[in-house]
Amino acid sequence: MPQVTLGRSELRVTPICLGTMTFGEQVDEPTAHAILSRSQERGVDFIDTAEMYAVPARQETFGATETIIGNWFARNPGARQKLTLATKVAGPSRGMPWVREGAGMTAADIVASCEASLKRLQTDVIDLYQIHWPERHVPAFGNIYYDPKQERSQTSIHEQLEALGGLVKAGKVRYIGLSNETPYGVHEFVRLAEQHDLPRVATVQNVYCLISRALENGLDETMHRLDVSLLAYSPLAFGLLTGKYDLGGTTGPDAPRGARIASYESVRKQRWGREDALTAARRYNKLAREHGLTPAQLALAFCYTKWQVASTIIGVTSVAQLDEDLDAWGTTLSPELLAGIDRIRWELRDPAA
């Protein structure tokens, strides 16, 4: 598997990144460790986590994912040095008072969160430290409209950059990134970093998959022109693009037992639980089968081969799922298949945006 450079940083990583938000909720620690070991064995050298994980977020599992990864590092001497480690500081509380006191994300919050992550991860440095969602009020996680009346920003982007810059100077963070960001946010972070000689964002981690391609409505141009790399998350749309929900749907007695959307009401209330998202997914899944591919192969190959994507974040609950996702690397999509994808998007747009 080749390597890609993230933004203007010195980070070189595989174009597939192991996502870990299931560790500590759907995935117990022994299974998580087996997945981490198998991922490294298969050549993946990039893992992503966050302080708020596991997902769905609960007070009881806050920080559990980082702790599980830290324990794996402790039990596998030398593993940390072979990996690029990314984690995230949570933005303002979204109904999660256990993350921090208050509704904002101050400079002190960023520093305190970083220190806590370092401790849980049992490491001295975070290679890529990302802001999980903007401190500003923005449409994210399925919301599509910006409403200036909802703005409650307390910490400027400049202040956030200064806090992150202090962590870089202290050697606790190597590079910084954003997540769930907008074109405005990316431009401002880059502009202020260049104006004030502060760390420049290397990456943006945003949703990108067949049923959620809003990134192509302008953010991709922003990132291309500013040399900021995309880390695409949810390439399988929380399982909708694997075909597992095609027959039984996401609710009711015929829904697949143990699957994330079927199991957690909080997830069903978000974009992945929309009926039109499932309708679109079924269309893409049918298209995949018509071209001799599994739905997962099509969905993953779509991300693996798009110019917009530097690295695709895959989340799994078993070693078998990991191997399936990695085996999809190298799958090519014919011009006819790509045309079929665009016809569906033109008709149904981005129901899980």
Architecture overview:
- The mean pLDDT is 95.
- Helix 3 (107-121) links the parallel strand 5 (84-89) and strand 6.
- The protein starts with a strand and ends in a 5-residue tail after the last helix.
- It has helices at 29-41, 64-75, 107-121, 157-169, 183-196, 219-226, 260-263, 265-268, 275-290, 295-304, 319-327, 335-348; strands at 4-5, 12-13, 16-19, 46-48, 84-89, 126-131, 173-179, 201-207, 229-233, 309-315.
- Helices cover 37% and strands 14% of the residues.
- With 353 residues, it is α/β, with parallel strands linked by helices.
- The longest helix has 16 residues, at 275-290.
- An 8-stranded parallel β-barrel has the order 3-4-5-6-7-8-9-10, surrounded by 6 helices. Strands 1-2 form a two-stranded antiparallel sheet.
- The chain has 12 helices and 10 strands.
- It has a single domain, classed as TIM Barrel.
- The relative contact order is 0.13.
- Residues 15-344 form the NADP-dependent oxidoreductase domain.
- InterPro entries: AKR, AKR_Detox_Biosynth, NAD(P)_OxRdtase_dom_sf, NADP_OxRdtase_dom.
